[in-house]
Every structure is written in structure tokens, then in C-alpha cells.
Amino acid sequence: MARSRIVWLLVLGISATLTVQVLEVFEATLSQKIALSLFIPLLIGIGGNTGSQAATTVTRALATGEIGIRDVGKVAFKEVRTGLLVGALLAVVALIIASLVYGIDIGSVIGLTLILNCPIAATVGGVIPLVAKACKVDPAVFSTPFISTFCDATGLLVYFMVAKTLLGL
Fold first, then answer.
1. Distance between CA atoms of 25 and 74, rounded to whole angstroms?
2. How confident is the model over 73-99, as a mean pLDDT?
3. What is the C-alpha separation between 58 and 132, in angstroms, rounded?
């Protein structure tokens, strides 16, 4: 059991340096608007959890035979829609709360980031177990660590690109 888990955790631990590289690239952006750093845990946490929920649902559906590898398009389309809905709902709440505390500019960045990140995370989370199954890798062991690493890096990339665009940094 440990052998099947450790290989993926080591590979993904090393690939987590991608997240550090994203932070380094946008270091100047962070220094211009320090308040952006306060929302990093929230945004990558929501992205990782959104992807993990999708992966868990799809992994269960694979195990029960409800879906198969051939359903990748159907799963991706469903997860995009689910991610958009979840992202929009979370964005409204985040926009209101962040705007009250940090201003409408930061609230808008957080809200738009959630609308963009949640569908990405849900889609990747839904598709990865199918890819793992097609590669004859246990989706239950592979999916969640991969999704966490992927969502951290892409979530930060989207976040800082939105911040730079909306805030003119």
C-alpha cells in the first residue's frame, strides 16, 4: 500500500515546485498589493477541494460501473457546468465579504478568480480518474495528489493574471 502511494507523492511533491515558481514569477505583483497574499490559501484550497470532490465522485462512479473511460467527454462537460455553478455561487459570497473588508477591487479579483478556477478544477478532477484508469493506474491513489498540485499552480496563475488585469499591476 505504501509503495503505491509513495511513488505518486514523491513525483507530485517534486512537481509542487511549479507552485513556488508561479509565486516567484508574480512576486512583484504581490509586493504591489500585499492583500492579495491573504487570499492564496482560500483560493488554492477551494480549487483543490473542488477538484477532489469531482475526482471522488468520478472514482466512485468508475468503481460501481456507472461510467467508463469512454464517458470522458460527458464527464468533462458535466464538471465544467458544475464548476461554473459552484464558482459563481462562491464568487458572489467572496465578492461581498472581500469587498466589505478589502474593497471592491480585491473583491472583484477574488470573485472572478473563483468563477474561472472552479470549472478548471472540477473538470480536471473529473477527467483525471478516467485518465488514470486508461493508463492502468489506480485512480483512488493517483487522482487527489495530482489534482491538488495542479490546482495550486493553475489556480495561482489564474489568480495573479486576474489581479494584474483588474488592478493594473
1. 36
2. 97
3. 11
